[in-house]
Amino acid sequence: MKLRTSAILAAALLAAGCLSFSGCTGGTIHSKNTPAADGSIRIALLTNPPDLDPILVSDTTSDGIASKIFNTLLGYDGDLNLVPDLAEAMPTVSPDGLVYTFHIRSGVRFHNGRVVTAADFKYSLERLASTSSKRPNVVKPILGAEAAIERGHTGGDTTIEGIRAIGDLTLEIRLEKPYYPFLFLMAMMNAAVVPHEEVEAKGTAFSREPVGTGPFRLVEWRENDRLELVRNDDYFKGAAKIPAIHFRVIPEPLTRGEEYKAGNLDLLDLTQGMLPRWRNSPHAEDVLVYPQASLLYYGFNLKKEGSPFAGYSDKARKLREAMNWAVDRVFICEKIMDGRYAPSNGIIPPGVPGHIAERPAFVRDLEKARALLVEAGHPNGEGLPEVELWFNSQGDNAKIAQVVQQSISEVGIQVSLKQLDWAAFIEACDAGEPGFFRMGWVADYPDPENFLYFLFHSDNHGPNGNVTFYERKEVDDLIDRSYLETDAEQRLGILREAEEIIMADWPWLFLTSTNEGILVKPYLEKFAPTAMDDDSAGGSHIPWDRVEVVPVTSQ
Amino acid sequence: MLSYAVQRLFGVIPVILLVTLIVFTLNALIPGDPGRIRLGQHADPSMVEAWNREHGYLDPFMVQYGRYLGNVLLHGDLGESDVKAGQRVSEVITGAFWLTLRLAIGSIFIAVMLGVGAGIISAVRSRTWLDYTSMVIAIIGVSMPVFWLGILMIIFAVPFLNENIPFLKLPFSGFHNTSWLDQVRSLALPCTALGLISSATIARLTRSAMLDVLTQDYVRTARAKGLRERVVILRHALRNAAIPIVTVVGNSFGYLLVGAVLTESVFALPGLGRTIVDSIIQRDRMVITGGILIMSVIFVVVNLLVDLSYGFFDPRVRHGRG
Hints:
Number of strands of chain A: 19
Structural class of chain B: mainly alpha
Number of helices of chain B: 14
Shape of chain A: globular
Structural class of chain A: alpha+beta
Oligomer: heterodimer
């Protein structure tokens, strides 16, 4: 052999080629239920969180991570009741429902060691009125907030008249008018307390080097790669049981799965299509599916000119109702969404107070749909123009749209599909361009008002959430009345009445409520997600300071 | 040679101008308001307008373009991300670029070693089982999508290797940079996946170039002089067959530097390709523009290096000598 070197290389090529097909060598399934040696938690993220500054948090990944770094005045217990967090107790409320007085826990320290005061809350809430804030609506009900937001638009002073720090530990917030859900806003991540000196020193970089009061502090963030959180030993509720949380950005579902199987991840959110695979695997017991306070619907633009489906006439309502009865939601939920989604039965989804569990879910009833078309003067869809269904290109949206298209065509209404990417899609929806479109809503807080006000109140046409441009005075009045009602049961009754009126107008093609699916290693204890916990980043309201790693005897 | 290199480097400037102009124009044409994207779906229109004004998006197109170009050329400043507060574009791209560079170097090393080696063997042992086997593997390599090979490696190769060679400790994914050994371990599989795919093209090209050269008179002469076969192949034949191979290797290296997005996604590596694709999905105009600008410069520089290397392999192609 004259060319030994090359021969070795050729052999290496062959070996490498074989290696790449080493499936034939009998790869084994690794099922490891051993936690990390130091007891830390390892969680996969689908994407890099965009921002960790509370005033910029608007996505579930950022929210999940920020919730481990920051605290708010109030939080939730496992049943989604509001409970004090940085507040010492629930606030006192003046009889007119306008003034909320919070007493702040003493001795709470930021990660930089400084003690938290009421002035920090005033500063943190007023930041929400600035131009760079993504959630000015969190402070909008406060007296003088609208003016502060206006001033903020031109770079002016964002001091909010209604927020007063009284001494070091008392915060008084005066509202413009009574607003029942105000306390929910104080439990949102956007209202978390931040140290002004850190924000001022770091500027926009505060979003990448956040300093809070939470059970963990961020020590490293490598963009698109990993975030390392370590325990805050001075945490005011006592140091967390776990020493660290390691987040890794792993976009590819199969890679994430292999990491989980190999015991390199403790928690994994299941992307679409993965649930059946895991349910039929040796890890089936790790699968946890729980309802999320969110829903999916196809909206009708009720102000679309020239559309027979728009408006509030009896005929238009019947046409919309006919489409509702034509759709096969069970097929969508079972076959496309892996049984993760459930057919909708209304606007308020399961897990949110006010949800009516006894109300039957929408089923497919072609006879009823056809009868309604006859009543509307369009038997078998005759005389109706083709309906253009708009949706954004993400996940299984196209598949769902095809099922809806097919279902509706069976009663004679022809549907064409129009797919856009998210940015273009949402811009078109906000502008009222599509007549029929896909949309979803994830609750900011567990209250029916969060669905009814943003999605149906005439204050919110377009970008604020009401993209069907629904407008009915009785509904506006009922929602507005609910803000003044202080009795919780009475208030729920008012909001349910509003829901009934809206449903009778059929502004949506009611589709599904949603569930989350995750994999959790069996050694993770006191990990109990609620309907307000998204599946990414370990949820937003799980008390991670109490989560424990208790090794189990495993294979 | 030097003046040629300087002349070519100056050629980068019109490329930058053209690329930034094209990207800027496309960014302006695609739907999606920057302020709306930054502040979110439910932001008040007046806030969106205020944000756009603050960030110069309400200025005329040529003013925005001129300001960007001025910042890039005069200060080397690629700006700040439109989507992520406090994220400097240059930092994001630099971090991602160094990782991708390591990935590309490792991959091209594997590709050249395997591809050139297999190509030479195939040419020298033409029409033998060795030739046929190498070329069949090369065809498989050319046809196989790199992400699929990557997934196969993660599912089968990593558990198999870690079980049988415990000291390897290959990670499934991610870039672990705690030590140089961890870095090598992190990049071993992605480099192998990318290298195997690229090696297939190089092997086929090397084979055909070598087959051409091996029939030349000077090779016959070298053999007649009594030179050892190894010297004939490596010094006389391979060097003369090198120019097309170097061109392909250079192009492959350029593509690896800018286009390893699938491999980076499968192996969860925060490289340049993934960074730019993510920024396109998020409509992060500043990162898109900065990223594409850097990619163009990389391509121009790699092409320049390839051109300059021709002079090394073939003295007749020395630049600047008439």
